From TrEMBL:
It is found in: Mitochondrion. Residues 180-193 have a biased composition (Basic and acidic residues). It comes from Perca fluviatilis (European perch). Its main location: mitochondrion. PANTHER family: PROTEIN ARGININE METHYLTRANSFERASE NDUFAF7, MITOCHONDRIAL. Belongs to the NDUFAF7 family. Gene3D superfamilies: 3.40.50.12710. This is Protein arginine methyltransferase NDUFAF7. Keywords: Methyltransferase, Mitochondrion, Transferase.
Length: 402
């Protein structure tokens, strides 16, 4: 059975990747990726700085978590609410923006897990923090190529997005003119539409508002942007790092160590602006803030109710999913030298250990039954055989025919 499921996943990959798609859209890799300085400095976000200094003057230094929450998601001046931060001209670039192969492979993964779950009648694709909608668009395109596999399953897309500005970009990419904002504030979905293929798309501010049903959740570069508390070890023990006003420069902020002790571990905080590291306290609201994800903490918080897989390096996951085979097909069919260079450069960024290959990780949360050994068939048992092994999970396992 294990080999059989591996064959099924291989067949999915072969079906999608055996020939170049007529809708291929290659996203060029820019030399500014994560290294070179921006072309020009933007004006500081004075309104956000005023807001933060007023809050600190009233209540005292604030935790890093509160600072991140205000800077990123403040409904008036938050970075995610007011900025177009993605892509070569933004502050950072993500894997789906580099190459559509990334989304294609995740689509195959989603369908293989839907099949492993017994082909439910409903398939909800839920993405947390969907950026410009590039990943969702690539996944849905592959779903369209696998209509025969999905059969009569009811497929829908559900996007959890706090930024109205980004939701408009996502709607433009995914639904075009076939969508509209909700009329009432009480509706769970604040925007609805449908794709050109007729698949319903809904936008939510909270994960809790997504309707119940069999769902595949994607959270690409999502957990690293969640607000975190930062701690520093001192001679007196662990102390929380707070954000305060610099007394020598009232128009600037600084980190300070709280006098009271805490029991937690240190978390590294980074800022990205113009694809390079940026002082996280400079011009609040003008740069993205990220923190290294503590996967062991995610495991503990998930508890015993789910099965955890990984984390595994992005390079390992993509190679297990067949990125090399897809690249060979595309390069053989590509006659344009410039496009070939873009393909090779995109592949290098996604898989090179010195770039995204090792730094970025895949982590899976599955229902415990997914990794349980299948129940033996009922009936007369003439001989005692070992229980069949659990079905392998694509991407986290190298699927072969052996």
């Amino acid at each position: 059975m294990r080999a059989c499921f591996g064959v099924k996943t291989q067949l999915l990959i072969s079906r999608v990747f055996s020939r170049p798609s007529t809708a291929v859209r290659w996203r060029a890799v820019q030399t500014r990726l994560l290294c070179s300085p921006p072309t020009g400095e933007e004006k500081p976000q004075h309104s956000m700085l005023r807001h933060l200094t007023t809050k600190i003057k009233a209540t005292g230094p604030i935790p890093v978590a509160e600072y991140m929450r205000e800077v990123l998601t403040n409904p008036v001046t938050g970075y995610y609410v007011t900025n177009d931060m993605l892509g070569p001209e933004g502050d950072f670039i993500t894997s789906p923006e580099i190459s559509q192969i990334f989304g294609e492979l995740l689509a195959v993964w989603a369908v293989s897990e839907w099949m492993a779950a017994g082909r439910p009648e409903q398939l909800q694709l839920v993405e947390l923090g969907p950026g410009k909608g590039s990943l969702a668009s690539d996944v849905l395109r592959v779903f369209g190529q696998l209509r025969a596999v999905l059969g009569g399953a009811s497929v829908s897309l559900h996007l959890v997005e706090v930024s109205r500005a980004l939701s408009r970009l996502q709607a433009q990419s995914l639904t075009g003119s076939r969508g509209q904002e909700a009329h009432g504030e009480d509706e769970p979905a604040y925007r609805r539409g449908e794709t050109g293929a007729g698949l319903p798309v809904s936008w939510y501010r909270r994960l809790e508002d997504v309707p119940a049903g069999f769902s595949i959740f994607l959270a690409h570069e999502f957990f690293d942007a969640l607000p975190i508390h930062k701690f520093q070890r001192t001679q007196k023990g662990w102390r929380e790092v707070m954000v305060d006003i610099d007394p020598e420069k009232p128009d600037q902020l600084r980190f300070v160590v709280a006098p009271s002790p805490t029991l937690a571990s240190s978390t590294l905080v980074q800022g990205f602006k113009g694809h390079r590291l940026h002082d996280v306290l400079s011009s609040p609201g003008s740069a993205d803030l990220t923190a290294d994800v503590d996967f062991s903490f995610l495991r503990r918080m998930a508890g015993g109710g789910v099965a955890c897989l990984g984390p595994v390096p992005q390079r390992t996951f993509l190679k297990n999913m067949g990125i090399d085979s897809r690249m060979q097909v595309l390069l053989r069919s590509c006659g344009d030298a410039s496009t070939r260079q873009q393909l090779i450069a995109s592949y290098d960024v996604l898989t090179n250990p010195a770039k995204m290959g090792e730094r970025f990780r895949f982590f899976g949360l599955l229902h415990p039954r997914r990794l349980a050994r299948p129940a033996p068939p009922a009936g007369l048992k003439l001989e005692k055989k070992p229980s069949p092994a659990p079905l392998p999970v694509a991407g986290f396992t190298e699927l072969g025919l052996s």
